[in-house]
Write a structure and sequence with these properties.
mainly beta; SH3 type barrels; OB fold (Dihydrolipoamide Acetyltransferase, E2P); 3 domains; five-stranded antiparallel β-sheet; flat
Length: 184
């Protein structure tokens, strides 16, 4: 397919690399061919780059597949996931999932992302429900602005939560930013 036909969310192969389109900008001037500036994520390395290609350039549009699996446990430098239907287990290197590890708890359902038979990583839901393991005590009268205090989740992730949240409560956390989203 022509590079100008790409849209955000599309997957494509270019020069042996697998990319997901984040954003695309088409630029046309009077004396020059249209140039497509594609902001994309390399799905194998996780790097976000910008490719500039002329309008006549073709890329190979492709698709990825997702499969629901349960996160079982941390096995040193690997994370173990299990297929709920066939009970097959797979391992993914912990180094590929550094951000996602902040929101994973045992027995949680996760989408594993595949390209043909290659495991690319995992896809988290927009929000996850986690328990507050520890938080600061709130001070009465400290409500001049939007009062927040520091809390630590069961996974070790630290974030700011409202004053009325206490240790042991379940909260919703945004997986894209790691911020508090509400009570569970």
């Amino acid at each position: 397919m022509n590079v100008t036909e790409l849209r955000p969310g599309n997957y494509f192969l270019d020069e042996g690399n697998l990319y997901q389109v984040i954003d695309i900008l088409l630029n046309k001037t009077a004396m020059r061919k249209m140039v497509a500036k594609v902001k994309c994520k390399n799905l194998r390395t996780g790097a976000i780059i910008e490719l500039a290609r002329n309008s006549g350039y073709d890329v190979e549009k492709t698709s990825i597949s997702k499969k629901k699996m349960a996160y079982l446990y941390d096995a040193g430098d690997m994370l173990v996931f299990m297929d709920n239907d066939t009970f097959d287990q797979i391992e993914i290197a912990k180094s590929k999932l550094e951000w996602e590890l902040n929101f994973l708890v045992a027995n949680s359902e996760i989408d594993i992302v595949f390209y043909e038979n290659e495991i690319l990583g995992i896809s988290l839901p927009p929000t996850v429900e986690l328990t507050i393991a520890d938080c600061e005590l709130s001070v009465r009268g400290d409500t001049i602005n939007k009062a927040l205090k520091l809390a630590t989740l069961e996974t070790g992730w630290e974030l700011k939560v409202p004053m009325f949240i206490n240790a042991g409560e379940k909260v919703l956390i945004r997986t894209d930013t790691g911020e508090y989203a509400g009570r569970a």
